[in-house]
Amino acid sequence: MSESPTPAALAKNDPAKPAAAEERGRTALAVGVVEKIAGMAAREVSGIHALGSGFSRTFGAMRDRVPGGKSSVGRGIKAEVGEKQTAIDIALVVEYGVVIPKLAAEVRANIVAAVEKMTGLEVVEVNIAVNDVHLPDEPDEDEQEQSEAESGRRARVQ
């Protein structure tokens, strides 16, 4: 006695029915993509002075000055990217006077929303390290390095 196929089995094998988009291939996202999206999302929150540790900001500022070099939007951000999930670590310098727990919650929410919307990945965690507080009377590290470089150039020219 031959068994007749069920309607569900016929639908699976129907060549006229196109395969779902997920079944037609795979999308791989580079770690840098997630890091850039997270960096842009973090910078949208007011109260952030800079991203990264002192060393990475100094190194990045030097790299930005090299002709043909490009600024790194993902500076201060590390991401681990899987097929369906991602985890992000971010280092921040905050402006003096901001409420750090509130700022961290806003940064975390903004990063999660942006990364999940743009990549479709589930953000399982966003770890935030506040490395410094920028005081109002402190010169910005980039400005300080630039003024030192300019004063060195003037000394050589004279």
Give an overview of the whole structure.
The protein is α+β, with helices and mostly antiparallel strands and 158 residues long. 43% of the residues lie in helices and 21% in strands. The longest helix is centred in the C-terminal third of the chain and has 20 residues, at 100-119.
Task: Give a short summary of the structure.
The protein is an alpha+beta fold and 158 residues long. The protein is built from five helices and four strands.
Instruction: Report the C-alpha radius of gyration, rounded.
Output: 24 Å
**What is the string of helix and strand elements?**
HHEHEEHEH
- Number of helices in the DSSP assignment: 5
How many DSSP-defined strands?
Answer: 4
Reported for the largest beta sheet, the result is: 4 strands, mixed
**Terminal CA distance:** 103 Å
- Which structural class fits the helix and strand makeup? alpha+beta
**Helicity, in percent?**
40-55%
Approximate strand percentage: 15-25%
Shape: elongated
* Average residue pLDDT: 79
Low confidence ranges: 55-60
Secondary structure topology:
Elements (H helix, E strand, L loop, with lengths): L6 H6 L18 H13 L4 E4 L2 H12 L11 E5 L3 E11 L4 H20 L2 E13 L6 H17 L1
Parallel strand pairs: 3-4
Antiparallel strand pairs: 1-3, 2-3
